Amino acid sequence: MMQRHDDIEVLCAVMDTCYYKVQHSESIYVHEIQMNIKNTGKQYLRIRIPETANVLTAKVDGKVVKPAAETKENERFILLGLSKST
Description:
Elements: E1 13-25, E2 28-39, E3 44-49, E4 59-60, E5 63-64, E6 68-72, E7 75-81
Antiparallel strand pairs: 1-2, 3-7, 4-5, 6-7
């Protein structure tokens, strides 16, 4: 008879690099984030943003995507679909 062992969690995504840039013009701040993520199991990247923030564009693998929105415990998030790394 084979013994069944408990599963353990494994690393599903790793961020290799992250570049963050802020530009200021008059009363507007534009934040730009570029990330290189190796993903083997996550469906979405969840990013918390302020209530007053607007998302101008979002790209995954160089292609423009439409992020989903989520609110949890009075915090606002955007969700970006992730590609699987090979």
